[in-house]
Fold this sequence. Notes:
With 97 residues, the chain is mainly β. Helix content is 7%, strand content 42%.
Amino acid sequence: MIKITFLPNNNTFEIKKGISILNFARNNFIDIPSQCEEGTCYTCSCEINKGQEILFENIENDFFDIKENSSHIITCITEVKENIVDGEIIINLGSYK
């Protein structure tokens, strides 16, 4: 099971593969500001506190690992890696860009 927690309200869910963090948040009534939804404007950028190693960026079907020391992710293009079965993601929505 892959858990995702959105701070500061500690909303925790089980996330499935194949959906962006932004779309998953929307589907669960979590508000993340966005504009382009292509990864170019950075409006949906959020601080990530845990889980970088189980995420990747999907840019027009080109896949890029997120560095373990990354402090922010672009939620519209970030997804859970296909080969991951267990893990935890913590995103701080109180800190944009």
